[in-house]
Amino acid sequence: TSAEYLARYPTQPNAPRDFAARDRDGDGALNSDEYADPQFPQAYNDPIELFRRADADCDGRVSVDELSGVAQAHQQMLPALMIPAFDDDGDGLLTLSEFRVSMLGNTICGWHTTRTDKNRDGVLTFDEFLFQPDDFLLLQRLYFYRFDADGDGRLIQSEFPYVEFNPNTLYRLAADGSSMEMIWQDKSRPTAGSPEISPDGKWIAFDLYPEGKIMMVRSDGDILTEVRGGLMPSWSVDGKSFAYSQSGVSISDFNGHHSDKFANGWGAQWSPDGKLIAYTMNRGLWVYDVASETSREVLPHNAHPYATLYYGMTWSPDSRYLAIKATSGNVHDIIRIDTQGEKPAFDVLLSTTLSLSHDLTWSPDGERLLFSMNSPQHGRNLLHQLELQDGASPTVFPGIDTNLTYMCQSFSRDGTWIVLTAK
Fold first, then answer.
1. 110 with 50: CB under 8 angstroms?
2. Who's near 84: CB < 8 A, 6+ residues apart?
């Protein structure tokens, strides 16, 4: 029925439309022929018919080459894995009964998707092998042990291929894109994010998430220091302290020995002139006056239509405007707020349905915004820049390695280089 179909494909936005198109007789339900229509992305697969088509020499058994001939492009890695794992009689071929137990004979999960060694221990555990963590656990357990040839409860590369979990890495990028080089990488600390360059350019503060630690490393990659607990460090104008988030927003001294909480918000960002700290709280945007130790709301929750205002905002160089990611449904906007206006006001700089990072950076000359956004051409999030002029569209930042996936970035105060996190 329609209800059953929509429950089976809850994350497919076109499911209602597809159901209506497949229901050719209009009776409100799909029969087997309607459900098996191959023009639709979710369809019944007949394993016996697939085996028959694969068995080119009609001997009742299929080889790796025969299986490769019927496997779809995204399934081409499966045939070579299936023979040793499901060939119960050891003849190097699969009978129909052996094939029906295999991955091509049972496509209920996306067996072709890449598995990752998330804990970087050189093997794949069952938790890392799981293709669907909540459903079909017994079937996935059966497959795991089928591939585990030596029975040690772990999979090595020769038993089932996987990729290592690449750590987030700090890179130095020239502001004109003329050079890009690695600053720091540590496989034991793979989650570096939210980097910010100190005002004198000598240090980079960043966080480890979900560990909840603020770290510092020299801008040449030397002398790594764990400073304190917290996330998203943001330097003061003199570089002697930083704002951060941890059960609220606080200010810490350089060494992390002393801190003061000033609000219950999140995502503190210090203004370039050092006078204000912006943060989000209760779906609104606030600024804290460092001298008077008072806060005021510059964009209340009832003055905008968005479900979420994200942390990772950025100040304009003159410390007047804030740019922040705001989301409603599947639409992501970058909006600009005037913190000195008589009443709450904002304008939309960018609106997109593409994946868009929450971490924004305003260039010191005030002419462009930097952020990570999906590039359909490359199939990953790349560093983009948006020139702040009417009608401009985001472009991929020149000089970056487009084989990497980008997360966060920050300009040096003199505007000559950018620190990036990418992997």
1. no
2. 149
Phi first, then psi: give them for residue 17, nearest 5 degrees.
Answer: -65, -45
Give the Å distances, CA to CA, from 350 to 94, 329, 403: 54, 15, 25
Helix, strand, coil percentages, rounded to 5, for the chain: 15, 35, 50
| Tokens, residue 383 | 């560093």
Q: How far is Cα 326 from Cα 193, in angstroms, rounded to an integer?
A: 20
Mean pLDDT, rounded, for 242-261: 96
pLDDT of residue 41: 55
pLDDT band for 313, please (50, 70, 90 cuts): very high
Beta-bridge mates of residue 259:
252
Contact call for residues 346 and 336 (beta carbons, < 8 A): yes
pLDDT digits (tens, 9 = 90+) for 114-129: 898 888 788 999 999 9
Cα–Cα distance between 339 and 345 in angstroms, integer? 9
Structure tokens at 370: 């930097």
Helix (H, G, I), strand (E, B), or coil: what is residue 18? helix
Average confidence (pLDDT) over 165-178 = 93
* Helices (H), ranges, 229-380: none
CB 170 within 8 A of CB 192: yes
Domains located in the chain, CATH noted: 2-164 (no CATH), 169-422 (2.130.10.10)
pLDDT at 204 over 70: yes
| Stretch 217-226: mean pLDDT | 94
Residues 56-85: tens digit of each pLDDT: 999 999 999 999 999 887 788 899 999 999
**Cis preceding-peptide flag for 300 (omega within 30 of 0):** no
Q: Counting Cβ atoms within 10 Å, is residue 239 exposed (0-12), middle (13-18) or buried (19+)? A: middle
Residues 6+ apart with CB under 8 A from 354: 332, 373, 374, 376
How far apart are the C-alpha atoms of 98 and 219, rounded to whole Å? 58
Q: How far apart are CA 232 and CA 250, in angstroms?
A: 11
Beta strands 163-164 and 116-117 are parallel
The Cα–Cα gap between 263 and 265 comes to 6
| Cβ contacts of 389 within 8 Å, gap of 6 or more | none
Tell me the β-bridge partners of 385: 370, 395
Mean local confidence (pLDDT), 293-311: 95
Sign of CA dihedral 147, 150, 154, 160: negative
